[in-house]
Amino acid sequence: MTTPLADKIKAIIAVHGPISVTDYFALCLADPEFGYYRTRDPFGRGGDFVTAPEVSQLFGEMIGIFLVHAWEKHLKPRRNVRLAEIGPGRGTMMADVLRVVARLAPELHEVATIHLVETSPTLREIQAKTLNGHAGNVFWHDSFDEIPPGFLLLAANEFFDAVPIRQFVKTQNGFRERLVGIDGDGELTFTAGAGSLDPALLPPGHQSAPQGAIAEVAPARAAIMQLLSDRLFDSGGTAVIIDYGHLAGGFGDTLQAVHKHQFDPPLAHPGEADLTSHVDFETLAEVAQARSISVNGMTTQGDFLLKLGLVERAGALGRGKDATEQDAIRAAVERLAGTGPNQMGELFKVLAVSSPAVTLAPFEA
Question: For the segment 180-207, what is each residue's pLDDT rounded down to a tens digit?
Fold first, then answer.
């Protein structure tokens, strides 16, 4: 099966030759005509995947608790406070965060302006409806650097995984950039190009990696983390990043597509499937540290949520509810913090960074 974007990509390759994985990734998600995020609402049970905020309000509430805690540890600034989210989905998490902020820290709720970094017109409309109760205090931006100056409390959930990566494959002649070309049947296929990778950018052990091994680097992710670190250095604040990925770098092909809640070959349905790859949290932390930003810690999503009080909040939420609702709440806790198949607790990781340095739960020694 072909797609309109597949035809467009094939036409580009026919004229210019094979394209990088980075360019393929970017076209799949952000092509102005056929890009996945430009043309649809991918979230929820009617879309292609369900994110943690759509699983349960408990997730956004825990993020809200964490951000209130960070604001308190930063001595409760009241001037030019920016509460921001990059990649805010349907606006569900921000709505849950704001409900908690209003309850736990009404003075923060009163002074903070809300900033959403979102490029999709479709999702902006949905976010506006979700956050209708906060109309007039919500501002949308095409990029992170458009958020006005001021103290920053920022959350990014499942954002970095959708930022394009580069891939390099081990060949007889060393690592060569992995490209997307066209095979003899006229279908999209992976191939190796002539471009090599600076060995200094490779994970340890690259000399003994077998032929076919894949190394992934993400300069675009590092650049965004650099912008975020610069902002925290200049204005102060805390950012929490949640995504699926690994706490230490290594080799492996993590490029994956999801189509109608099922894994899909990455080249099968360009423009109609979500395309992501695992986030290298170690590299993000190194970027922050190089800018003198304090890394509060890195951990799994399950550990993060449980130490913030997920189970206790779930108990309060289920109190007085019927058995069906209590079962649904228990299932949501297991999905968010569990370690089994299809559960997020171990697969998803959390990184928190601050400037100036503050000690934040649940990263306290």
Answer: 999 999 999 999 998 777 777 777 777 8
Residue entry with tokens 């949640």: 242
Q: Which of 279, 166, 292 is nearest to 226 (CA)?
A: 292
Torsion angle of C-alpha atoms 282, 286, 288, 290, degrees rounded to 10: 180
Claim: this prediction has a pTM higher than 0.85 = yes
pLDDT for residue 194: 85
**151-172 per-residue burial string, b: 16 or more CB within 10 A, e: under 16:** bbbbbbbbbbbbbbbbbbbbee
Rounded to whole angstroms, the Cα distance separating 279 from 297 reads 16
Note whether 177 and 192 are within 8 A (CB).
yes
* Mean pLDDT in residue range 21-45: 82
Instruction: Return the amino acid letter for 89.
Output: G
Backbone angles phi, psi at 213, to 5 degrees: -65, 145
Q: How is residue 115 written in tokens?
A: 């900033």
Q: Which residues contact 176 (CB under 8 A, 6 or more apart)?
A: 168, 169, 192, 193, 194, 195, 196
Q: What is the rounded average pLDDT of the residues 264-293? A: 95
Q: Which residues of 337-359 are buried (b: 16+ CB within 10 A; e: fewer)?
A: beeeeebbbebbbbbbbbbeebe
Tokens 């109309």 correspond to 135
Q: Which residue has the tokens 């690592």?
A: 175
Query: What are the residue boundaries of the structural domains of the chain, listed by start?
Result: 38-161+225-244+292-355
Q: pLDDT at position 1, please?
A: 60
CATH class of 38-161+225-244+292-355: alpha beta
Burial level of 135, CB count in 10 A (0-12/13-18/19+)?
exposed
pLDDT digits (tens, 9 = 90+) for 229-255: 999 999 999 999 999 999 987 899 999
Q: Regarding beta strands 274-276 and 214-217, do their DSSP bridges make them parallel or antiparallel, or are they unpaired?
A: unpaired
Residue with tokens 């995020």: 37
Taking a C-beta distance cutoff of 8 angstroms, is the pair 64, 98 a contact? yes
**For residue 311, what are the CA distances in angstroms to 315, 329, 342, 359?**
6, 10, 19, 23
Closest by Cα among 10, 6, 52, 46 to 347: 52
